[in-house]
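Progress narrative, work stream C.
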Amino acid sequence: MLKLDHTTGEMLEISLFDLLDGGVKELADMNLQRVLDNIRDPNTEQKKARTITVRFTFTPNEMRDSTLVNIAVDSKIAPVKSVEATLDIGKDNGKLVAVERPKYTPGQLRMDGHETDTKIHALKTAQA
């Protein structure tokens, strides 16, 4: 593919990635940064593959002497890992409540020598 250098009038050979004065490379680099950030995120699955896709779509005019080029750069990253909590459901003064179950038994001594949190926080429930 050729491109006219407007300063010298010379025809330069370029690749598809040189279109838009390097704009395609810039879009690819932005997506690369997004993928790298996602790889380093400890909240994502480490072994999940990430991808970057560059798609060129050519739509010629009726005379077939020019074409519109649509350039899309997209990345697929790993989703943030889901987390779980256990809620105990019961009634408090006749009102339905949900209480998050503590990770450890309240008052239990942990391996690091500290006592576990004994606070239990009631969650607000939607009014029926």
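Work stream C, second folded protein:
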Amino acid sequence: MSIPDRFRQQCRLLRIVTLVVFWGLFLLLALGAGGLPWFPSRADGDLGTRLLLMLVRLLPGLGYLWALWAVQRALGDLAAGRLFHATLARALRHVGIGVLAGALLSVFAVTNLSRWILGSHGSVLYFDLSGIVLGVVGAALMLLAQVIDRARALQAELDEIL
């Protein structure tokens, strides 16, 4: 089945937009380590402690950047006319992994590791609604990728029979 030219053009355009967003966010995260306003305050301790906190706070962003990279790669594959089902399954799986990882790191790791580094106390979970929703969406995307993989396998089996 041929992918219409208009769809392929839209994929190319969205891939460019996704790459701009990816590199913009990557730059923002990288500059954060250089001391922009979201750098941990001096009240958080010495330089080593502040740098460790910065690294912990960057962790979710790495998962989200992975998801954006997977999206732009899938758009590139679709724009090039590569197999739709294989591209879609891989993209859903990788986006799901990135979003789930970012959300889990945001909800569990950042809060608890920051608290541990600073030696403070508090609850184990940070109930960030967006983080929890993103985690569920990431897990669902991974399951949807399995459905597409199964459908592709069944299609191949049917094609062999016919």
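The chain has a mean pLDDT of 84. No further action is required on this item.
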